[in-house]
Amino acid sequence: MAEIPTAAISRLVTYLRILEQLESQDVSRTSSSDLAERAGVSAFQVRKDLAYFGRFGTRGMGYTVPILKRELVRVLGLNQTWNVVIVGMGRLGQAIANYPGASDYQFQYAGLFDVSPGIVGQQIRNLTVQHMDDLKGFVMQNKVDMGFLAVPPDRAQDAAQALVDAGVRGILNFAPVVIQPPSEGGVNAQEISDEWRAVIIENVDFLAGMKRLAFYILNPHLKDAPMTEDPE
Length: 232
Ligand code: NAD
Known about the structure:
By secondary structure, the protein is α/β, with parallel strands linked by helices. It has helices at about 5-25, 30-40, 45-50, 65-75, 90-100, 135-140, 155-165, 195, 205-220; strands at about 30, 65, 80-85, 105-115, 125, 125-130, 130, 145-150, 170-175, 200-205.
């Protein structure tokens, strides 16, 4: 498969959200121009993003909403169960654990972890917060795929290391720090261990969004215009 820009994957997630909305409004057909308008991109962009993964519509006829939705769910891997642990059960960790939306797509919170004696042992929804010392055994026994990292910034690297040692395949990092694979003598791809190389890290930072927003409110003319050209 050709290399796919990260932004295209983000847009697929947006298209999926739009398709869910259309489905909830009993709309059965859509088109690249309709999706484009709702997503704030061009129809060319929509067709290009979808084309990375196959042919989903019929030329001139557009797409059947439930079929395109099903295909995007499959492409994004949302038709399988993902076991998740949350590391750091403070304000953010608890808010994430209590938010029900993740289970819509079979993201299951399998375990919650912290180090604070005041938090370990607490019951949050149907789970008891466990100590980090038990993370590795838990991840292995429960086939955990992902870890959400919601610890203070100065604890994030160590907690990420614990998740990598435990064998998770992906980390969603909420702490405002760059998680780095450890390497002696600087970051050198050759020195990165296989465990770290195998882990995908995604960062979520609403403060970064606020900063971008401030900049674009002050400099609206610098905001990207959606791609409008259609070379087809
Ligand atoms: P908090 O202080 O309320 O909670 C942090 C929790 O982490 C505490 O319960 C603490 O005991 C636990 N902890 C500390 N070290 C640990 C370790 N090594 N292993 C496991 N648990 C550990 O903090 P918060 O307000 O919930 O914020 C958590 C993180 O999320 C911070 O880094 C914060 O900057 C970040 N944050 C990000 C966003 C975002 O949009 N990405 C939004 C809010 C907060």
